[in-house]
Design a protein that fits this description.
Elements: H1 7-11, H2 22-38, H3 43-46, H4 59-67, H5 75-78, H6 84-97, E1 100-107, E2 112-119, H7 120-135, E3 142-144, E4 150-152, H8 160-163, H9 171-185, H10 191-204, H11 220-245
Antiparallel strand pairs: 1-2, 3-4
Length: 247
Amino acid sequence: MTNHTYYSIRTGSNPAKDGLTLNNLKKLFKLLYNNMKQNGYFDESFYAYDDRKPKIPNVEFEIFLKISKENLWPINEFIEDYSQDDLFDIIEFLYIHVSKPISGVWDNYWQINYWNEFDKAEGQKKFREKINEVLGKYIGKFEISKDGEILEKPEIGLEEIFKAGIPSNDEKVTQKIKSAVRQYRRHGATLDDRRHAVRNLANNFGIRHHNEKQKTDYDAALWLSWMFYFYLATIHLLVRKIENTKT
């Protein structure tokens, strides 16, 4: 019964019925991270055993170099002070470097498996699956994409448009759509970022659109959300019809 909803959640009495706070999200993430760490999912990148060297011998330096932040590593030492942005940065960093252990040598004395072969694609798949389950509990609506980016989840009922994929074999078309979608959904996207994403969808595909300057008393975030999904759905429809005429 994998989708069972427990009593307090069903009845609305659960204190986290509206979603976990950031502090509780960090606690849940820490449990997941330590479990995957214990099971060897970060050994290839971060930890040395016997003669095998890690791909990243100095993780703290690598994080500082790539994220330009201190006091993020080790996770268990600093996680309590993480902001939401810090946590999402670390999740993306781990996604890049996770790999599933598939072969190793068991040490009876230390009761540990010295992993020496790994599968990166399977590791990322597992990590993404578990992280999205964790993020699904958060009061904020986020998920990590296959590209390893934390994105805002789509509006309820509109998820399928992202699952459907882009119905075109034209690389230029697919890249334009993906770029606009990524800009719109990226964590931390401002209203200006989303205006540009909507404008790029409209302008790149020749769709005539309303001029938002015509009125000044509208809810900008709501308007942008409506237009984004309207344009995206329109583009999917038109591209699919164009592709169908080629067959």
